[in-house]
Amino acid sequence: MGRREYVFATNSLRAGHFMRVFMLVAGLGCIGLAVLGGVMQLHPEGPAGVTARSVQGTVLISAVVIGVYWWRAPWPSFGQSVAFVVWADLACAMVAVTMATPAARLSMTSYVGLIGIFAGFILGTQILRLHCAFSALLIGGIVVWAVLEDHSVVELFIYFMPAFTWAVGVPLISSVLIELGRRAILTTARSAHYDSLTRLRNRRGMYSAVASALRQGGSTTVAVAVCDIDRFKQLNDDGGHAAGDAALVALADLLRDVARDDEITARIGGDELALVSFLGDRGSISELVDRVSVLTRVRGGAVEFSVSFGIATMPSADAHFAVDDVLRHADAAMYDAKRSGGAACAVYATESTTAASAARRHGRDRPA
């Protein structure tokens, strides 16, 4: 609950270089609560009695500590962010209920709205709803308490309505705008990384996905299978661009079907598609060749064409590893397959692939 929104907000702040600014503002908010608590100690409607003053003093000290923590510590984890919201809600509630009059108590609850904006932006709608429910119960409880002390609801209206608006209404409305903005950004980001025709990743999306997979999975052997449709220009000339598009979509769907969940498929230009696999300890290049070889001839309805594949590998731990180099090698193998007549799958010969397979034609072996 809220982890997806937390990751999105964290990545957005990091990418925009606003993370330290956000932490500075959060720390200032905590220090502001401490200053407010200090001023309230001297206010006529502030805390009365040793217990109330001690409670506010404890909140004041904790606010200073947490404010400094925001300034000095690294970006908080998801759990730490949730804990901060819980602390902030309880701190504001304790300051509010220890004020001397209903008007002062209700006025203090307005500051809970700032916590709601933090919760909505960093932790998402579900946690914000819990926060707003707590805020509504706090305000409602103070109103009931005041009514039991012979205050009228009408008398308190000018205090609890603004408090409710700021503590509950504004955060909820803000969360709707934040969520709409988040979805718009995600849609834009997705369109920048995906091809609209085939619904595969584009070249930029492939680079991003490979980099992310390598960061998470560590060292492995990266295998790239590059393919394109044989005599694609003739297919376009004979059937028009609609026929070419239909063939591309059909090939993209088939490539997606043979790809595993942890593999990456992409359209990297024109009629050229790619499948990126991370072989690790459980896969082999021969198994990848077997999987893609079934796509060298495509027959389905009005669509019928042949496809040439080129496959290359490179260990990600290699000092000179680059995705572009693996693509270039796979591309060279693919054109080798085309020169031999097409409808084939060829493997770029390297030290890591020679032992497995130099090349494979559809239905028979061939040299690299």
Written description of the protein model:
This protein is an alpha+beta fold and 368 residues long. It folds into 2 domains: 3-193, no CATH class; 203-365, 2-Layer Sandwich (Alpha-Beta Plaits), CATH 3.30.70.270. It contains 13 helices and 8 strands. The chain has helices at residues 3-15, 19-40, 50-72, 78-97, 102-108, 112-123, 125-148, 153-193, 203-217, 232-258, 285-293, 323-339, 351-354, and strands at residues 221-229, 264-269, 272-278, 297-300, 303-315, 344-347, 359-361, 364-365. Strands 1, 2, 3, 4, 5, 6, 7 and 8 form an 8-stranded mixed beta sheet that branches. The radius of gyration is 31 Å and the shape is elongated. The two termini are 52 Å apart.
pLDDT under 50 segments (min length 5)? 352-368
| Helix/strand structural class | alpha+beta
Mean pLDDT: 88
> What is the N-to-C succession of helices and strands?
HHHHHHHHHEHEEHEEHEHEE
Largest sheet: 8 strands, mixed
Portion of residues in helices?
A: 55-70%
Tally the helices: what do you get?
Answer: 13
Strand composition percent: 5-15%
How large, in whole angstroms, is the Cα Rg? 31 Å
Spatial gap, N to C terminus: 52 Å
Overall 3D shape: elongated
In total, the number of strands is 8
Domains counted in the coordinates: how many?
A: 2
